[in-house]
């Protein structure tokens, strides 16, 4: 059983934790925005789908995401200095699925370009953030990666349409969804 940290933040707890299956079932019911994290590792482009991207702080501008330590993308990410977080639109279901598929060249399908700094950015992503990795923290079977936002699609007119509202891609209960006026309460 994985060691559980106590509330005091130090040693093992005498409380048991829920099973991984129960945990996954609960989080399938929690909707999440979909992003693709992209980076350049040596001469290779790396990218993967993430539904764990969160805003951490506005001042300084920090975001974070998690990635399984056993992921094929972890090795390159462990060495990277910068990444791009591409926030996907509801029209990018195929892109999300491609970057979540193992054992393929995820960039072979095209639809991306390189920033002047060398990182790949997905052409049709309505918004993206280029960020510096400031911390990698092993937690359980994953890595928590904290990023400081450096620039964004808002700083690069012409890379994407920045004025038009675009419904985001949302993942919930193993299905993709979109938000829009029809879903507003």
Give the topology.
Layout (H helix, E strand, L loop, with lengths): L19 H9 L3 E2 L1 E7 L2 E7 L3 E5 L2 E8 L5 H6 L2 E6 L5 H8 L11 E3 L5 E3 L4 E13 L2 E11 L16 E4 L2 E4 L7
Antiparallel strand pairs: 1-11, 2-3, 2-6, 4-5, 5-10, 6-9, 7-8, 9-10, 11-12
How is this structure best described in words?
This protein has 185 residues and is mainly β. It has a domain at 33-161: Electron Transport, Fmn-binding Protein, Chain A (Pnp Oxidase, Chain A), CATH 2.30.110. The chain is 12% helix and 39% strand. The protein has three helices and twelve strands, in the order H-E-E-E-E-E-H-E-H-E-E-E-E-E-E. The chain has helices spanning 20-28, 74-79, 93-100; strands spanning 32-33, 35-41, 44-50, 54-58, 61-68, 82-87, 112-114, 120-122, 127-139, 142-152, 169-172, 175-178. It has a seven-stranded antiparallel beta sheet with strand order 3-2-6-9-10-5-4. The longest helix is centred in the first third of the chain and has 9 residues, at 20-28. The radius of gyration is 17 Å and the shape is globular. The termini are far apart. Mean pLDDT is 89; it is low at 1-8.
């Amino acid at each position: 059983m994985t060691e559980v940290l106590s509330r005091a933040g130090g040693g093992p707890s005498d409380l048991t934790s829920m099973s991984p299956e129960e945990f996954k079932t609960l989080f399938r019911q929690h909707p999440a925005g979909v992003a693709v994290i992209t980076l350049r590792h040596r001469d290779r482009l790396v990218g993967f789908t993430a539904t764990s991207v969160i805003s951490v702080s506005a001042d300084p501008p920090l975001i974070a995401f998690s990635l399984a330590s056993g992921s094929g993308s972890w090795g390159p990410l462990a060495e990277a200095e910068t990444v791009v977080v591409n926030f996907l639109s509801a029209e990018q279901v195929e892109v999300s699925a491609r970057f979540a598929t193992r054992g393929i060249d995820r960039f072979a399908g095209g639809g991306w370009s390189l920033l002047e700094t060398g990182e790949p950015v997905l052409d049709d992503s309505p918004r993206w953030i280029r960020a510096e990795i400031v911390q990698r923290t092993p937690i359980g079977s994953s890595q928590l990666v904290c990023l400081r936002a450096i620039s964004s699609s808002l700083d690069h007119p012409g890379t994407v349409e920045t004025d038009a509202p675009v419904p985001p891609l949302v993942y919930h209960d193993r299905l993709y969804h979109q938000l829009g006026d029809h879903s507003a309460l």
